[in-house]
Amino acid sequence: MDLILEQWSRERPDLDCSPMGIIGRITQLQREVHLAQRATFARHGLDAPSFDVLAALRRAGQPYQLTPTALMRTALVTSGAITQRLDRLEEKGLITRTRSEADGRAVVVTLTAAGREALDAALPDHLETERGLLAGLSEDELAQLACLLRRFLVTLGRVPQRP
């Protein structure tokens, strides 16, 4: 990225190309994170979308249930995408889908015991992968980075502002 910025500075000194340095590095980091997570999840027979659904259900607490709409909002995907994820997880026996007792028209997604075991087995490995990716930064740098990234997402409207 430094070389690219140097080249643009030489070729187009009239332009401030500094945003490329930030966005380009974010893009490079995204690829590194994706590859590391993919390898971690594969060791547990999962992929990132499956992990996201299982984690959302686990975080919901007992009885580990959410509606497909709630899962769709958590995962920020379309209804078609969440349906595909749920189909795959149900085939593996990691979730069940049943009609809501409160509203027979609504569907409730429930984490099965096998799903909870799969998530609980993958989670420590996932956290270790993330910890390894961040190992080059101090605690202060990590806190600063987390704050800056949150602020960045807030300005893009992706994270609600704190009161």
From TrEMBL:
Q: Which Pfam families match?
A: MarR_2
- Keyword DNA-binding among record annotations: yes
Q: Which InterPro entries match?
A: HTH_MarR-typ (IPR000835), WH-like_DNA-bd_sf (IPR036388), WH_DNA-bd_sf (IPR036390)
Q: What Gene3D superfamilies does its record include?
A: Winged helix-like DNA-binding domain superfamily/Winged helix DNA-binding domain
Sorted alphabetically, which keywords does the UniProt record give? DNA-binding, Transcription, Transcription regulation
What are the recorded GO MF terms, alphabetically? DNA binding; DNA-binding transcription factor activity
Q: What SMART domains does UniProt report for this protein, alphabetically?
A: HTH_MARR
Stretches assigned to the HTH marR-type domain = 1-154
PANTHER family to which the protein is assigned, alphabetical:
TRANSCRIPTIONAL REGULATOR, MARR (PTHR42756), TRANSCRIPTIONAL REPRESSOR OF EMRAB OPERON (PTHR42756:SF1)
Name it: DNA-binding transcriptional regulator, MarR family
UniProt organism field: Geodermatophilus amargosae
Organismal lineage: Bacteria, Bacillati, Actinomycetota, Actinomycetes, Geodermatophilales
